[in-house]
Amino acid sequence: MKLQSARRRITGARALTCFVWVITVGTAHAQPYPNKPVRIVTTEPGSGNDLVARLIVPWLSASLGQPVVVDNRGILAGEIVAKATPDAYTLLSYGSPLWLAPFMRERVPYDPVKDFAPITLAASSPNVLIVHPSLPVNSVRELIAAARARPGELNYSSSSTGATPHLAAELFKAMARVNIVRVPYKGSGAALTALIGGQVHVMFPNAGAVTPYLKSGRLRALAVTTSEPSALVPGLPTLAASGLPGYESVSPFGIFAPAGTPPALVHRLNQEIVGALRKPEVIERLFNTGTESVASSPEQLAATIKSEMVKWGKVIRDAGIREE
């Protein structure tokens, strides 16, 4: 009898322990999202990716009721988020280098399609085709004619390999069938300085970066790279309407979560981030830096990535572009 009683007590204790464990785990999983700080991993401070992340942080933090912090990790940002727990507490703010890197490197530590859950195409920034005033051209057609008359003599400046200013120039070369030599610089500031100093002839910088120099006459703008005229550079024609039908190049900025993040959380984050991107203050601050708020659905960002990989993958392969 004593043995049976002892066994009953042990069994009862085990049952109670299991019950408490189930209740504890169930309660933990039932806690509403978010119940701790959210981190947005992105590239270097001052980049377009960093700007987008920092502009949405105050609004996202207020709507989620938790601190949202920006974590600048440079080129490691994509790898960090790809390997993060898919619980919506680690997000990524990144642009086209995220999905174009596999075309330019032998090894990339993530799959741009399989390892991320798109949340929203947050914003996009056009480039502007500009020339130094010493180059006697006033239109895209005149630039093409000059380049064809002097093959290999004209040059263009760009920053990092595979960045939009570089690819926009290579797309121009391919579509216009001209030979303009690339002069690479370590940063966009140095590339722009070289153009202002007359060391190079052509550049495709971000619209916001060159506005002061266009107004002062130190640089001359020929066209914008969007498919339609842009309010960011009013009065400037598109390359598509200036002799290169179908030409388009913009810098997209997306927000992602790790693959496997529950769809309900992706939907929640999309709603919250889109709400932030539609705030008049955010739209204005983006506009003042040469960037336009987009605020898309997850599906639209996914479609943009696939389309860009097809388009720019061909440009990269045809031009033989490889990261140094």
Describe the structure using short key phrases.
alpha/beta; D-Maltodextrin-Binding Protein, domain 2; five-stranded mixed beta sheet; 2 domains; globular
Describe the protein:
With 324 residues, this protein is an alpha/beta fold. The chain folds into 2 domains: 158 residues, D-Maltodextrin-Binding Protein, domain 2 (3-Layer(aba) Sandwich); 97 residues, Periplasmic binding protein-like II (D-Maltodextrin-Binding Protein, domain 2, 3-Layer(aba) Sandwich). The chain is 46% helix and 18% strand. It is built from 11 helices and 11 strands. The strands form 2 sheets. A 6-stranded mixed sheet has the order 2-1-3-10-4-11, with helices on both faces. Helix 2 packs across helix 9, helix 4 packs parallel to helix 11 and helix 6 packs across helix 11. The N terminus is likely disordered.
